[in-house]
Amino acid sequence: MGKRVILIVMDSFGIGEEPDAAAFGDEGTNTLASCTRSEYFRAQNLAKMGLFAADGVKTARTIPEMSIVPSGTYARLRESSMGKDTTIGHWEIAGLISPEPLPTYPNGFPDEVINEFKEKTGRGVLCNLPYSGTKVINDYGDEHVRTGDLIVYTSADSVFQIAAHEDVVPPEQLYDICRMARAILTGRHGVGRVIARPFEGTSGNYVRTPRRHDFSLVPPRDTMLDVLSQNGKDTIGIGKIHDIFAGKGLTEYTYTSGNEDGIARTIEYLDRDFEGLLFVNLVDYDMLYGHRRDIDGYAKAVAYFDDALPAITEKLRDDDILMITADHGCDPGYTKTTDHTREYVPLLCCGRDFKPAKGTKGGSLGTRPTFADIAASVLTYLGLPDGEISKVAGTNIL
Q1: I need a labelling partner for 157 at 20 to 30 A (CA). Which of 110, 196, 334, 374 fits?
Q2: Which domains are seen in the chain, by residue range?
Q3: What pLDDT, on a 0 to 100 scale, did the predictor assign at position 315?
Q4: pTM score
Q5: Is 355 exposed, middle or buried (0-12, 13-18, 19+ CB in 10 A)?
Q6: Bridge partners of residue 323, in order along the sequence
Q7: 77, 346 in Cβ contact below 8 A?
Q8: pLDDT at residue 358, rounded to an integer
């Protein structure tokens, strides 16, 4: 078989505020530094790949990992798109830069959207405000159970979220409702994601179930996934990659129940023969710990992945490259909001026969102006001609 790239996104693992962070309300944020405040933080293997040697990396305290001399190739990436959400971040990683932010609704969705949604679904709407996902089901869950009206809410991200009790609206029916919403939310109201948020339990004890499902906006242009698949390469998505790209450009995909499952699936796929890209999203950092501002939980999740890295790297073939990055920040120590944070992200690369690019200082690739350098580098490494590589943004840096 030919070359393979294993690209793992540690969802929300930022490494410090970007120069324009203040414009996003995120001045002083640093997801990595906040995690190092926890006694549970451990990242020796990420350090070997260059995490603490990247430009500008600072931590809240001195930790042993910072003195490890890296053997990998590493960079700090700045987001050039106007956003700090999952969709825009992943699209940029895949070579699609978004000069305009996706629409957000700090005051809730307008009547024209809500009225059409009510008409199409035949149900009323509760809330229609930015809200915490765990708080909204406890504040509105009883009324939802009593009336059958749908809990609609948003956040600082470009999302239209629909929560419903599984005994009132079964998940498959909720997914159909989300598809109706997705058809409504186009054009100037084209939010990045419509998200099904099923929950269960009783009054005062409602909890979200793992049957969340995202219905994303279709990328407006081709990404590296399209370019690869159109040229006969495999493009395999693990986790919510399929949802983020609305399936566009993927040849195969599998969903996961969280980080542990995602890591296990990644290891399983490395035993398979494929040629192309294995694109993995590990969502727990963001969903379970970043937004909930749980520093210890985030640190434990980083340590779990770090411990699993040797099992991943030992399965790499001679022509494989492992790339680890993130799509935005979500600083668990930032108390002004519970939203994503505008941060640089790391790019860590290694492989059995992979050598740093000529002209680099050690393994350092410095600070790059866009996440899209990943896309151009993946296409170059997988042997696509210049004309195909030029279809995505970014510059090969490997």
Answers
A1: 374
A2: 4-101+217-389 (3.40.720.10), 111-216 (3.30.70.1250)
A3: 97
A4: 0.91
A5: exposed
A6: 7, 349
A7: yes
A8: 58
